[in-house]
Amino acid sequence: MLKAWTTMNWYQTAYDHALWVDFQAYGRILATDRDRLELMNRISTNKLINLPQGVGVATLFLTATARILDYVVVLNQGEQVLIITQPNRHEAFLNFLRRNIFWNDRLQLQDITTSTRHIALIGKQAQQLLSSWWPEPLPTKRYDFSQHQDLTLVYSDTIAEAPSYWIIAPENSMTEVFKWLEQNDVPAAEFSAYDALRIEAGLPLAGHELTEDYIPLEIGLWDTISFNKGCYTGQEIIARMDSRGKLAKMMVRISTDTTHLTTGQALLNAEGRIVGEITSVAQLPTTPEKFVGLAVVKATEALASTQLYTQQGESLNVVGLAGVYESDYL
User: Fold this and answer.
1) Which of 31, 51, 155, 224 could form an S-S bond across to 81 if both were Cys, CB 3.0 to 4.6 Å?
2) Are 185 and 47 part of one and the same domain?
3) 142-151 confidence digits (pLDDT tens)
């Protein structure tokens, strides 16, 4: 039996040791045949053609006005490509891809979400634990991966100030993984408990920041966009924003020790003008009075230590930018 997660210690466990989170809600789609990369390359923001085997990248699918439809991670496994969607987005994304297949495209798509498992290994000791168990070299760059038998290990993000990883495998191959986690006293955390760590790391999520409310450059998704590839839906607006050298909005991390924050709250500056909105929020179990969040605010209010206010007049602080921005915009 796996060691149970408890509300009061999961956060500290990530900083002291490691924990795992069930990412089953993230979709997994296999793409095979000649155009397994070509189709996504021509309709998404990142360059996927000639993606080396063993390398993964994130790419975005946008509306004509450059608003975010989907964020997916593409892993080139050689003869097949594994696509990781955002939580509960696999059916919608699969239908979207199928609608964009031309008559002369050679592409097969298979939804393997229910026949596979996907967990995240997070925490200070995650890398050390893996180095003594995983028989292949550990991936060292975001979304790069290595494979052993039918297990896939992906370097996903930096969370809790340490590398975090995804382990993806067929359902019947996870027994040994769970046994290894139990032997190393790695507890399981509910997905909802992952939010504070995600927010502290400045990572966007579908339904919060990854929505049609925002343009990718505004929420620090520069690393998902190639500025020297061919056209894709929304490309003209992205290029125009980049050429201006100025952003109207930016995504920031926020925190407060006194204010109860909620998603969707408007944020005001010292003059009382609305300058942004909270997109994600979590209460820290170890410090119940402390809330952390993500917000999209006017660029003029995005500096660290800026004080903002709710409409009830309660204050909170901007901790710093979230996401990846070009240095010219900082």
Assistant:
1) 31
2) yes
3) 999 999 999 9
